[in-house]
Amino acid sequence: MINLTIINAFITKLFNDIQNWAYANNVVINAGGFTIGYSTYYFITGMLALTTPLFVLISNNISNLAKIIGLTKTGYIYLSIQLICDIIIKIVIWLSTILITFILLEYFLNNNILKLKTNIKEQEKKDFIIAKAKLETSNNESIIDNKKKIDIINHKDKIIGEEIVKKEEEMIEELAKNKEKKDYEKFLNSIL
């Protein structure tokens, strides 16, 4: 009877710990995201593999055109053009992968199947707007102006950091003076 009670208590405790762990670490959400991402990866690579003959055909036509024009005899110029075309094709495939992934996950899975809409929380929306505004203003500034702003921010951060260190050192000194009182909780609360 005692063994059964201990086993039941252990199972209950283990289940409770697993439940808390799974909730705290978003295990189900992360597992679902991983599974969806993994299957989406193979679907998208399969779709891109279907378009590979199209890219091979375009590449062959460009090579034939280069032979007709006489670029193949130019050596380094032909190799440079071929390298640039390969890079452009890889960029197009990469951007296509991102676009297909977004369309599949957001429009098809999230909107149509799950009937959900991506929602940005209020604080994240403010951060998003600030990030967009910073990008717009930094794109309109020269590199020198941007460096000046970064230097000013770094200087302000240094001053703030020195003040924080100074306050912490003062608190430690005061704690050492008031050693008899042992007011550690107040000290910890003031730091935190």
Proportion of residues in extended strands: under 5%
| Estimated structural class | mainly alpha
The chain-level mean pLDDT equals 77
Q: Radius of gyration over alpha carbons? A: 30 Å
Helix content class: over 70%
Low-pLDDT runs of 5+ residues are none
Number of self-contained structural domains: 2
Compute the number of helices: 6
Summary of the model, kept short:
The protein is built from 6 helices and no strands. The protein has helices at 2-24, 27-69, 76-113, 122-140, 143-177, 184-191.
Which helices and strands occur, and which strands form pairs?
Blueprint: H1 2-24, H2 27-69, H3 76-113, H4 122-140, H5 143-177, H6 184-191
Helix pairs in contact: 2-3
Describe this entry's structure for a reader.
This protein is mainly alpha-helical and 192 residues long. The protein has two domains: 119 residues, no CATH class; 72 residues, no CATH class. The chain contains six helices and no strands. Helix 2 packs antiparallel against helix 3. The longest helix has 43 residues.
